[in-house]
Amino acid sequence: MFIILEFSHFDTTQYFNPVRDESKPKLEFLLNARFESIAYPACQIAQEMDQSFSSEIELRRSVCPLWLRQGKAPEAIGSTTLLKVGEDAFALTAAHVLEEFKDQSVLIGTQNGFRPLVGEVSTSSPPDITDNAFIRLHPEIADWLAPEYRFLSLEQVDVGDLPTASSGYEFLGVPYRKVRRADGRLFRFPVYSYASTSIPISGYQALGLSPVFHVAVDFVPRRVRDGDGRRITAPNPQGMSGGPIFSRGFSANAGRRLVALAIEHRKGVLIGIRIGLVLEPIRWTYPQLRHFLPPLPSHVRLKNSSD
Fold it and tell me: Domain 3-156 falls in which CATH fold?
């Protein structure tokens, strides 16, 4: 079995405007692990940067929400996963998030305000069914994000992961219904995490999926555990598309590696696309970055539709 990859590419750097408007709405981070309405001030975020990257808070800082300009106020529409490939900064997401709003102004935000998402954008397109996209960020946008977000490194990526009956995974993202507007200029968003085990291997085929290309976990909102292992009642996961999926055990010191991106919620199941299917189009689009990217394992067979 192999999968066909086909990507559309367009460049938004012509819209780049380095002038910042401090009167624009601002963003406030909710990084509390228990999802309480507590915003960490900037000094606390800076202190957290010194901790191990495997900490729950640091994992959440690799998630950057996308916003849509709606009248006078932005509205959250989806999530991205931040990744460095060599010196280049990428925002990875689900293609349907960008395709739905491709003719509108998509924004990213920090505590200093909102700016247009600027970079070289590539999205999967039919007959490609992977539903993934990536943005090679303009260097100034990447520098603007760096103090408040954390870019994952390729050392934290695992392209060879395969599920077993006991495989644990953690989905991270920003459910848009949990974004709160504190006043006219201040927006608060929580980064949620859902930890669960893979569905049975036989269940992948029943859903029209493949464990080689997808991650699928059980998702019952009243019986979900967060990244710290606490049982929670999960909100509607809409808005988490494009967020990272990490492999993990359920012990506090278990290592976590980026293995997929969240792309879909079906009844009782959360679904992601394997990270190798995102990195391979980056390899094809930017040949100068090939030597940075990990090779795909032999069991993953892809075909570039342009070949």
Answer: Thrombin, subunit H (2.40.10)
